[in-house]
Amino acid sequence: MKINQNLSAVIVNDQLLRNENSLSASVERLSSGLKFNNAKDNPSGMAISFKMQAQINGLNRASLNATDGSSMVETVDDAIGQMTEVLQRMRELCVQAANDTNTPEDLKAVQKEIVQLKEEVDRISADTEYNGQKLLDGTLDRRTYVTDQNQNSMFEKINNVIISDEVEADFYNMNITQAPSHEVVLSGAGAGGATVTAAEAGTVTINGVTAEIKEGMTPGEVYEAIREAGEKGRVKVFPTNGATSTLQPDNLDRQGFDELQNGYTSFTDQLAFVSEDFGPNKVSVTCSNPNVGNLLGLNANAVQITGADVKVEIDSITANQNYSGQAVVKNEGDRVIITDKSGFQISCDIRADILVENGAIIGGKEITLETTNLGTLQLQIGANKDQELAVRVPVLNTQTLYIDDLDVTEINGGGRGIRQADYAISVVSAARSKMGAYENRLDYAISSLDASEENMTNAISRLGDVDMAQEMTEYTNKNVLTQASISVLAQANDLPQQVLSLLQ
């Protein structure tokens, strides 16, 4: 037995250290509940665990994002619902106004309520917001940029561009070959005296609305009667000294005439009857007898300039048109609607001076509509890149719903108002249906994300959570071994003393 080196004690001490390390690791696992607490415990397992934990965190955040998006969509849905109720009431009033039992005073009273209802529609559009973000003013709708062949912006001449969801982000061309124009009847110089004589008395009918011209009326009184009748028939009437030789159908609109500074003071002054609507067959002026026509210059000296609907062509466009062979163009007034298969639709309003450049009328203008995904609300409803839901909220106001000029006091204003209200209701109904689809989609997304998070949590639990029963067994085993090592080490340390006893 050698006493300089107690190899038995060294061996036992080394084993004791290993047992103590194993026991410490077991205690750490029991206290943390994890199989590995350090990278050295299981390098690959820890890497996988960290990636899975990042996925779990992303799924949880995506679920909250979808919940926020659903709340926003619900806000839009509620606002559109309120707007629908307003439009339903507006249509009801239009049906009431269409009944010929109403007096002019009754129609004016109905129109007052309609005006308030239109203001409410615009208020809902302007004030609906979520988290400080406007929802119905077009902020969350897709962006469409309008340029001509020289890349000049055409937003000032092409307004209210509305695209359907089926219109993909791309370039869409159209060729404007005819600008919209107002129909005009321009009187010549009348031949009356200072007041209306008995022979000159009669009626002037403007688009079905009659103005009575009575004996003794002054030019100013005659003008007011005609102006009021024209207003009801959607015709603007005013005195002008415009020269008929300069008038052109292509660039003619009511802003092209200036009212006389002194008003209609003489029957020799010219009268301009300008339609408020674009297109042909919009102005009809008839007199009950030739004397009335001579008095107002509406007989041989009158000039009628036919209005025109805007004309847009896409068949002549060959490059980058992106329309199928089923695309159809509808031209009505200053409004253009292009429809294609599967719900594809582009609509816009064209200004009357679209074909005027440097004061001259040009033959046509090619326009490019660049539709982008800019502006749409991108909801991150997944834990990974590009897992998004694009939410489009169209701009909804009296202008885009085409009810801004709804007036039941006009001739056949009730019937026209019904058509306008029907269109507006169809638009907001489609928008609300879209919001409902978004809500359902988000509800499904939330359920799917929560399920994925649960499954991923179970997976990471199986990978990283310790089996407490098994680990407790290991702990007991390591504890017993440690105690045994301590006991054996004590005995090994006593061996040199036992050898020394031989020297006594």
Structure description:
With 504 residues, this protein is of the alpha+beta class. It has a domain at 182-305. It is built from seven helices and 21 strands. The protein has helices at 7-32, 43-97, 104-127, 219-232, 290-296, 413-464, 468-500, and strands at 129-130, 133-134, 144-148, 158-163, 170-178, 182-186, 202-206, 209-213, 235-240, 270-278, 285-287, 303-305, 311-313, 328-332, 335-339, 345-350, 356-357, 360-361, 365-371, 377-380, 388-391. Strands 3-19-5-13 form a four-stranded antiparallel beta sheet, with no helix packed on it. The protein has a four-stranded antiparallel beta sheet with strand order 4-16-15-14, with no helix packed on it. A four-stranded antiparallel beta sheet has the order 9-10-6-12. Strand 14 (328-332) and strand 15 (335-339) form a beta hairpin. Helix 2 (43-97) runs antiparallel to helix 3 (104-127). The longest helix is centred in the N-terminal third of the chain and has 55 residues, at 43-97. The two termini are 16 Å apart. The mean pLDDT is 86.
